[in-house]
């Protein structure tokens, strides 16, 4: 029996991203600025924020127009390399 292939994404497409980091007054602005470098044209409706129940972490949910795997890889790497982001999903 052959192994099933991973699903492929057809680009360009709307692509949801969740960025989790320590809560800070400028965390959302920081995330949006980094994302805008790779996927310009975010609108307010494309961004939502949730705080953890203890208020220690923030989760920023964004929907971008993804153009390809290199774009997503570079975006994820820059967010993680910042030291402010714990996880990018």
TrEMBL record:
Pfam families (UniProt xref): DUF493
GO CC annotation terms, alphabetical: cytosol
Spell out the InterPro entries in the cross-references.
UPF0250_YbeD-like, YbeD-like_sf
**Family per similarity comment:** Belongs to the UPF0250 family.
Its name, as the record gives it, is UPF0250 protein HIU99_10730
Species of origin? Marinobacter orientalis
Lineage from the top down?
Bacteria, Pseudomonadati, Pseudomonadota, Gammaproteobacteria, Pseudomonadales
């Amino acid at each position: 029996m052959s192994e099933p292939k991973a699903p492929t994404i057809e680009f360009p497409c709307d692509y949801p991203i969740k960025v989790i980091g320590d809560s800070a007054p400028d965390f959302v602005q920081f995330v949006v600025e980094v994302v805008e470098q790779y996927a310009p044209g975010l609108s307010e409706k494309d961004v939502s924020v949730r705080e953890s129940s203890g208020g220690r972490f923030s989760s920023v949910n964004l929907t971008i127009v993804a153009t390809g795997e290199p774009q997503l890889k570079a975006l994820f790497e820059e967010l993680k390399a910042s030291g402010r982001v714990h996880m990018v999903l």
